[in-house]
Design goal:
By secondary structure, the chain is an alpha/beta fold. The protein contains twelve helices and eight strands. It has helices at residues 25-37, 57-71, 86-97, 116-129, 140-143, 149-155, 171-180, 195-200, 215-226, 230-246, 254-262, 282-292, and strands at 8-12, 42-44, 78-80, 103-107, 134-138, 161-166, 186-189, 205-208. The termini are far apart.
Amino acid sequence: MKHEMLGGCGTALVTPFRESGEVDEAALRSLVDWQIEQGVNFLVPAGSTGETATLSVEEHERVVAVTVEQAAGRVPVMGGAGSNNTAEAIELSLRIASTGVTHLMHVSPPYNRPQQRGLIEHFTAVADAAPCPVVLYNVPGRTGSNIAAATTLALAEHPNIVGTKEAAGSCSQVAEIARHRPAGFALLSGDDYMTVPFMALGADGVVSVVSNATPRAMSELAGAMACGDLRRARSLHYRLADWMRVAFVESNPVPVKAALGMMGRMHPRVRLPLAPLAEANREAVRAAVRAAEGT
């Protein structure tokens, strides 16, 4: 199966909600346009940052469909389709693929804490059934289990598994994958702060949270690393560093949604069990975003 290899900066899109709680499709369309105009290389709707855990299946599919429709082929769209139930992951993959996404993102099954052989069987079953390329997502802090480098490399041999988003925070694990992966297998940082070191080790880009509010700066950082301009990348990293930290001062995506609210791009509403940003953290978010934008 032919596919476009992912690289550069991809944004893990937030899901905008109206104050009344419904998905705000107009704000999502505006966010997609702005992200692309600002230089983002691909979009990732309905992942962790998109509060997928509190979306209905119908909302989940609609969020991805709106993103695909608004992107209109300008950039790849990788739709989140993971589940801790393999059968449900396959069913959701078929629904999300029908929206026209270029890729499907599948998180390691949360809560179950499967063995490495269980992970191989799970992802193989998903990839066998999926009608478009699959990208793994390793985020032990949310799932409770790590996809070992050896497991990722074994799965990379599957013709329909074309990359991984690595958010384990391990340089040694990323280096092992980078050294031994097959040609065409994308390696993406899942942690904004680790973009520079991971790309220095051979990663192709980042799936970014902070780029929701600072897409140009984060895209420039990934672009500088891709061109081997470490001095420029380092300068951008330090400009963004406070924002990368403050964006996680409360559970993601609470701070980044608050930032987008301050910018007038959407209502900052999150869904329970997440609560709005604490008043005590608002000025830190505002100041960090301004510094990241160089203003």
